[in-house]
């Protein structure tokens, strides 16, 4: 299971970076989304995957009796997902506005800011 | 009790931001609230600064969770100083924006977002938890995205796409680094991490994690191979926005680099080599980049990059004198860079252009203003006794003791090239006879605006120039402060102790 997840994270990172490197604005957004999901899954994986062991201490005990799923990474992912969701929605609106104003989908043609003025 | 004081700057900024949203369409009320709020914030920051100066590092544990488990807020001397500088720049830019930004832009919630940005900055400086640092970074970049796009001009949107992409990538890399670090140590508290990272046997993996942090923060700080988004975007928004970006946003990256590389990843020769290499190349490429630009604001953008190099150089040498130089330079640079972008806005308002080809004759028309502008420009170059001079002594001194002569060469080269650039700027903008240009009918020139708005333009520049003069002439005090910060950063036991042990003592009480 862990090895499968590791491979998937690798694929997500690679395809995300590949898409960001393309010249199209839409592919840029897809790339950012894939990259973000890769990072979130990585946090999940690094909390060690433990099946069916919630982090609850039994009533009669004071400490954990057996291996348990670390709850911290899951809290972190939740935060990270919400943040990346916000950023991605902003990205989509920004790209739509940029496309309307600049009238191109090609990042190579967006070079007005590099011109001498 | 002083330890509650740490979160007052955060509370104040979030309260201001929320309050300002209730005055969405009432621009004048927003201006007054923002300026008053920033003044109060300056008061609180001075209070915090003096309290920390007297009592040393202070911590607050959120929800009274003991140190490595909850979120910790830590105010050591370094954080308190940066919060104070944020308040100084924040007040100046708040006054400057209420005069310089047109009401059409203010109507889209400029001031609330501005205070959210300051909230993020204060939070990033005060947090002691690495994931919390990531969250503050996100607050900063989301606010900065809105500020950079507000108005929606073509150049702004193009600049924003580049700014946005690079900053998101930086955040993702930072998040990846946090994930790997958590996997290695099982902790997120920076003081706790310091001990746990030092105990890891697989140094290769630690170095890879450190490099991930270096890339993530390096993009934000705009160091050598990662800076190209900065000159493509910083000159596009209104100059008040550029001022806060140029003064503080890249410095958050530098702050994070200094924090992480003096606390968590310490004493790795390989990393120090990389930092030095990056710093030297940043000094060279930023300087040479600025030399060929013709737009005043683009020149300043490249100078930001160039001078980031000075701070990273000190971090790379990693001696107490070098770190003191870095901190002194950071203090000087925040004030001067904020001021530079504000005065580029003033030049634009007076002449209707920022291109050095068409500008000129400023000195003939406004001799007193020119003398005022002289102060930040030549503080930047570091003509003694102005403020940029003193930290370079520490840095060069440290260069001799560590035997890194390349660094000394780069520092001197970058100072020299800055001098050339500023001299060129002075000759082109202030002395040269300008071409006759027709006045734009639709543009509101400086001579047309009311007296109170003129004060809003010039007041903040005078204020920051005075601060710069103080840093230059009162260098003794700043040197004392930066030496103390450097001492605290190098001997980080005291920071770790304050975080990990104070929390439990507080609970026992």
TrEMBL record, chain A:
It is found in: Cell membrane. Coiled coil: none annotated. Pfam families: Oxidored_q2. It comes from the Bacteria. InterPro entries: CPA3_antiporter_subunitC, NUOK/Mnh_C1-like. It comes from Autumnicola lenta. NCBIfam families: PRK09094.1, PRK12659.1. The lineage of its organism: Bacteria, Pseudomonadati, Bacteroidota, Flavobacteriia, Flavobacteriales. The keyword GTP-binding does not apply. The chain crosses the membrane at residues 6-21, 28-49, 75-95. Belongs to the CPA3 antiporters (TC 2.A.63) subunit C family. This is Na+/H+ antiporter subunit C. It is a multi-pass membrane protein. Keywords: Cell membrane, Membrane, Transmembrane, Transmembrane helix.
TrEMBL record, chain B:
It comes from the Bacteria. Keywords: Cell membrane, Membrane, Transmembrane, Transmembrane helix. It is found in: Cell membrane; Membrane. Residues 129-418 form the NADH:quinone oxidoreductase/Mrp antiporter transmembrane domain. The chain crosses the membrane at residues 6-25, 32-53, 73-96, 108-127, 133-152, 164-184, 204-230, 242-267, 273-292, 299-321, 327-348, 369-390, 405-427, 457-475. Signal peptide: none annotated. It is a multi-pass membrane protein. InterPro entries: CPA3_Na-H_Antiporter_D (IPR050586), NADH_UbQ_OxRdtase (IPR003918), ND/Mrp_TM (IPR001750). Belongs to the CPA3 antiporters (TC 2.A.63) subunit D family. This is Proton-conducting transporter membrane subunit. The lineage of its organism: Bacteria, Pseudomonadati, Bacteroidota, Flavobacteriia, Flavobacteriales.
């Amino acid at each position: 299971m862990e090895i499968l997840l590791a491979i998937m994270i690798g694929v997500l990172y690679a395809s995300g970076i590949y898409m960001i490197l393309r010249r199209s604005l839409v592919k840029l957004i897809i790339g950012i989304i894939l990259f973000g999901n890769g990072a979130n899954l990585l946090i999940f994986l690094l909390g060690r995957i433990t099946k069916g062991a919630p982090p609850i201490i039994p009533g009669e005990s004071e400490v954990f009796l057996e291996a348990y799923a670390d709850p911290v990474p899951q809290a972190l992912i939740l935060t990270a997902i919400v943040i990346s969701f916000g950023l991605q929605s902003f990205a989509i609106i920004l790209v739509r506005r940029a496309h309307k104003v600049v009238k191109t989908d090609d990042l190579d043609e967006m070079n007005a800011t590099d011109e001498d003025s | 009790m002083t330890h509650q004081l740490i979160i007052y700057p955060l509370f104040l900024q979030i309260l201001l931001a929320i309050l300002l949203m209730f005055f969405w369409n009432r621009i004048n009320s927003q201006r007054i609230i923002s300026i008053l709020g920033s003044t109060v914030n300056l008061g609180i920051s001075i209070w915090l600064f003096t309290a920390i100066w007297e009592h040393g590092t202070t911590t607050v544990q959120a929800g009274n969770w003991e140190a490595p488990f909850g979120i910790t807020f830590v105010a050591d001397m370094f954080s308190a100083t940066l919060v104070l500088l944020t308040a100084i720049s924040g007040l100046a830019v708040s006054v400057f924006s209420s005069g310089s930004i047109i009401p059409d832009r203010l109507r889209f919630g400029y001031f609330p977002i501005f205070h959210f940005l300051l909230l993020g900055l204060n939070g990033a400086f005060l947090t002691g938890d690495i994931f919390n640092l990531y969250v503050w970074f996100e607050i900063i970049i989301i606010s900065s995205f809105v500020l950079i796009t507000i108005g929606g001009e073509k150049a702004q949107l193009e600049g924003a796409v580049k700014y946005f992409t690079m900053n998101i990538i930086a955040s993702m890399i930072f998040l990846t680094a946090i994930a790997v670090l958590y996997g290695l140590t099982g902790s997120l508290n920076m003081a706790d991490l310091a001990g746990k990272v030092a105990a890891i046997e697989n140094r290769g993996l630690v170095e890879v994690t450190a490099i991930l942090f270096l890339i993530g923060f390096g993009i934000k700080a705009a160091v050598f191979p990662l800076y190209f988004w900065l000159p493509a975007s910083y000159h596009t928004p209104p100059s008040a926005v550029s001022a806060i970006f140029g003064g503080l946003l890249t410095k958050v990256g530098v702050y994070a680099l200094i924090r992480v590389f003096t606390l968590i990843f310490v004493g790795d020769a390989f990393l120090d080599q990389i930092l030095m290499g990056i710093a030297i190349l940043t000094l060279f490429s930023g300087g040479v980049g600025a030399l060929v630009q013709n737009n005043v604001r683009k020149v300043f953008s490249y100078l930001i990059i160039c001078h980031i190099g000075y701070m990273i150089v000190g971090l790379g040498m990693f001696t107490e004198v070098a770190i003191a130089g870095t901190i002194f330079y950071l203090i000087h640079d925040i004030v001067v860079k904020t001021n530079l972008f504000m005065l580029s806005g003033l030049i634009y308002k007076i002449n209707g252009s920022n291109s050095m080809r068409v500008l000129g004759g400023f000195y003939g028309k406004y001799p007193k203003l020119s003398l005022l502008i002289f102060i930040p420009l030549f503080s930047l170059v570091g003509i003694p006794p102005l403020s940029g001079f003193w930290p370079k002594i520490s840095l060069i001194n440290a260069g001799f003791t560590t035997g890194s002569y390349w660094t000394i060469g780069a520092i001197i080269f970058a100072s020299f090239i800055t001098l050339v650039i500023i001299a060129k700027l002075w000759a082109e903008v202030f002395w040269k006879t300008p071409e006759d240009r027709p006045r734009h009918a639709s543009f509101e020139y400086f001579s047309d605006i009311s007296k109170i708005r003129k004060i809003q333009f010039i007041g903040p520049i005078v204020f920051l120039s005075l601060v710069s003069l103080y840093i230059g002439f009162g260098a003794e005090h700043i040197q004392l402060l930066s030496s103390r910060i450097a001492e605290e950063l190098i001997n980080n036991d005291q920071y770790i102790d304050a975080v990990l042990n104070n929390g439990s003592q507080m609970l026992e009480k």
